[in-house]
Amino acid sequence: MALRAGLAEVRTHPLMRQAELGTALADLASGTLTLPEPDGRELVALATGGSPAACLGLPAGTDRPTQAREADRLAARWRVIENTARQRVTRRHARAARELYEALYFLD
Questions:
Q1: Which of 49, 67, 69, 86 has the fewest CB atoms in 10 Å of its CB?
Q2: Is the pTM of this model over 0.85?
Q3: What is d(CA 23, CA 90) in angstroms, rounded to the nearest whole number?
Q4: What is the pLDDT of residues 59-108, one digit of tens each?
Q5: Which alpha helices (DSSP H) does 1-108 contain, by range?
Q6: Is the dihedral of CA 18, 73, 66, 105 positive or negative?
Q7: What rounded mean pLDDT belongs to the chain?
Q8: What distance in Å separates the CA atoms of residue 56 and residue 104, rounded to the nearest whole number?
Q9: For residues 106 and 94, what is the distance between their CA atoms, to the nearest angstrom?
């Protein structure tokens, strides 16, 4: 059981969720996914950021409460995109982005 619980934790880790956005970047680069600014810029930062602050578009050293507030704001914004997008590919990638923002919100 301990191994199974450990694997479940790994699956929900923000880095694993970040890896899922690789297909979003490929779709963005190919034109399959079209996003207005700042959405495209936010998605690139989220997918390529090397730290939680970078993923959120914040400067290095930003305190954790500020990161949590920004993650909450962005999760809410991407939830709207997820729920209102006309294209299925946009909804799918918006859901992945929202889930990563939510994971960053709950990060210790």
A1: 86
A2: yes
A3: 12
A4: 999 999 999 999 999 999 999 999 999 999 999 999 999 999 999 999 87
A5: 2-11, 14-20, 22-30, 39-48, 52-55, 64-84, 88-105
A6: negative
A7: 92
A8: 9
A9: 19
